[in-house]
Amino acid sequence: MEKHLLSKSTFIRGNQCLKSLYLNKHRPFLRDKLDPETLARFKRGHQFGSLAQRLFPGGVDLSPKSYYQYQKAVLTTREAIRTNSYDIIYEAGFQFDRLLIFLDILSRENGNWIAYEVKSSYKISDTFVLDAAFQYYVISNYGLSLKDFFIVYASDKVAYDKLEEYDDLKPLFIQESVLDKILVLQDFIREKVEKQKETLRLDASPVIGIGAHCNSPYPCDFIGHCSKSAIRK
Ligand code: SF4
Questions:
Q1: What DSSP string describes 6-61?
Q2: Which among 140, 103, 97, 143 is positioned nearest to 119, based on CA atoms?
Q3: 112-118 and 146-154 beta bridge pairing
Q4: Whose CA is closest to 113, among 98, 95, 135, 129?
Q5: pLDDT at residue 91 above 70?
Q6: What pLDDT was estimated at residue 162?
Q7: Among 31, 71, 78, 84, which is least packed by CB within 10 angstroms?
Q8: Given this model, what pLDDT does residue 233 score?
Q9: For a pocket test of ligand 1, which of 16, 17, 233 has the largest count of ligand atoms closer than 8 A to its C-beta?
């Protein structure tokens, strides 16, 4: 299996800015250092994701053991599904057309596969729906039929600084189906994927100036580089 070109995080990055996508792939050393706020957000997301797994007990974690084992992890997931080895898989890996995703929780319920993506947030944003649509695009084109796709997010009962103290998890999570929303986005995803792949094949980064998009939906980590380039002009 060939190495992937895009993952869900790089797809979201490319949707925000094609220059950021290009730089991330070809000039990663130009990235700004991660600030404490971003590091704290990553840590919180990781903790919240682990907690959500406990809503689906008894599963197997098939996440790759290192960056170099992504494709191997995809093959492991494929085998687990083919042999009906597990009803619940954490970090189920799929690759289609050099697009790679790891789904937070894949659950077989009454003979149907259901996807659950966990977000440490109090509401569902458009970016989360886009992220889910990308994952659905990869999984369905790979050949696995999904009966439904849920985003699992935080209820107003969650205090992020107390994540390690909760025993009763059910009141903490809201599960909302986004299947209808992501089905209508499938052609959009296909077009965006083609555009992003085209961008990655360019000889130089696309010319895109600093603007409101640099902070939406996330602060871009090439702002330092792009700001310097803008000053030099
Ligand atoms: S700082 Fe702005 S223009 Fe530069 S790569 Fe990031 S999003 Fe694109």
A1: EEHHHHHHHHH-HHHHHHHHH-GGGSPPPPHHHHHHHHHHHHHHHHHHTTSTT-EE
A2: 103
A3: parallel
A4: 135
A5: yes
A6: 76
A7: 84
A8: 55
A9: 17
Query: In a 3-state reduction of DSSP, which class is residue 99?
Result: strand
For the entire predicted model, the pTM comes to 0.93
With a 6 Å cutoff on the Cβ, whether 13 touches ligand 1 is no
Within the chain, residue ranges assigned H as helices are 8-16, 18-26, 36-53, 70-82, 126-142, 179-183, 186-200, 223-232
Neighbours of 115 (CB within 10 A): 25
Q: Is the distance from CB of 132 to CB of 151 less than 8 angstroms?
A: yes
Q: Which long-range contacts (CB under 8 A, 24 or more apart) does 78-82 make?
A: 81/144
| 101-143 pLDDT, tens digit each | 999 999 999 999 999 999 999 999 999 999 999 999 999 999 9
Ligand 1 atom nearest the C-alpha of 211 is: 2
Which amino acid, residue 76? T
Going 119 to 52 to 140 to 145, the CA torsion angle's sign is negative
Q: 95 pLDDT exceeds 80? A: yes
